[in-house]
Every structure is written in C-alpha cells, then in structure tokens.
C-alpha cells in the first residue's frame, strides 16, 4: 500500500472516531489524534493528546493566561459566514482557536477575534500588565526600592 497524505487523512477520521469512543468510555474531556508524521518508507506516527474530565487543554490554559491581549472570555460566541464560532484556545503562535458549529476547529489572528468583540477592552500595555499582575507588581516594588537604595 502506498502511503499518501490523503490515505492518512482517511485513517485520521477512523482513528478519531475510535479515540472519541475511548474518551467516552473512560470519562475524558478530550482525546484527539494530534500531529502526524510519515516518511517514504511507509512509517508514520501520531501524537495523541488527551484531557481529563474537568481539565483544560494546553491551548485553553494559554488562552486564559493571555487575556491581556484583549480577548473575550474563552467560550465567547460570534457568527461568521452563517456559522457560529466559539473561542476555544490560543496557539503558541498567538492564533486564536475556535470551535465551529460545523464541527471543525479554525485558527484566527487575535485582531480578527477582537473585531467581533468591540466591547472587550483593548490589549493591556506593559505598564498596565505590571499593575494587574501581583507578582510583577511585587517585582516592580523591589526594583524601585533597589533604585532608591532601600534594599541591597
């Protein structure tokens, strides 16, 4: 059998159906076939990613940790092209992941997502971010004290 990208995509559909059944059986919130790699020799591998019930995927945690970008609450909905999208997560490359009513996930630039939520605050500046982060605020106080000669 010749291994092609199309063949692997067809296998992924079956694999995901099996993973969905395993997730239901074991009470997992998510169990997905991640990236797939293959070579000319016919070898291939998939990264499997799972999330326990009540847990958050790394992209969801990243979204929550980067709300300072001016993003709406995770799970916020908007319509585009007659379909409903729900904000789901954030990639390491700062692309927002949405879950669509068509069952697929899509990635968007942060600015595009913000355009659907004009009521959401603008991104925080560095100074504002320091003021809202208790650890950064404490660090700022320590730096100020050092500059004033108060701590050595």
Low-pLDDT regions:
none
Terminal-residue CA separation: 70 Å
The ordered string of helix (H) and strand (E) elements is HEEHEEEEHHH
Number of helices: 5
Name the structural class.
alpha+beta
Number of domains: 2
Tally of DSSP β-strands: 6
Order of strands, main sheet, comes to 3-4-5-6
Q: What is Rg?
A: 21 Å
Largest sheet: 4 strands, antiparallel
Helix-residue proportion? 25-40%
C-alpha geometry: elongated
Q: Averaging pLDDT over every residue, what do you get?
A: 86
Work out the strand percent.
25-35%
Indicate the topology.
Blueprint: H1 5-26, E1 28-38, E2 44-52, H2 58-65, E3 77-80, E4 83-90, E5 95-100, E6 105-109, H3 110-115, H4 126-132, H5 134-147
Antiparallel strand pairs: 1-2, 3-4, 4-5, 5-6
Helix pairs in contact: 4-5
Descriptors for this entry?
38% helix; two-stranded antiparallel sheet; 152 residues; 28% strand; four-stranded antiparallel β-sheet; alpha+beta
Structure description:
By secondary structure, the protein is an alpha+beta fold. It folds into two domains: 5-52, no CATH class; 58-121, no CATH class. It contains five helices and six strands; from the N terminus they run H-E-E-H-E-E-E-E-H-H-H. The strands form two sheets. A four-stranded antiparallel sheet has the order 3-4-5-6. It has a two-stranded antiparallel ribbon with strand order 1-2. Strand 5 and strand 6 (105-109) form a beta hairpin. Helix 4 (126-132) packs across helix 5 (134-147). The model has no long low-confidence stretch (mean pLDDT 86).
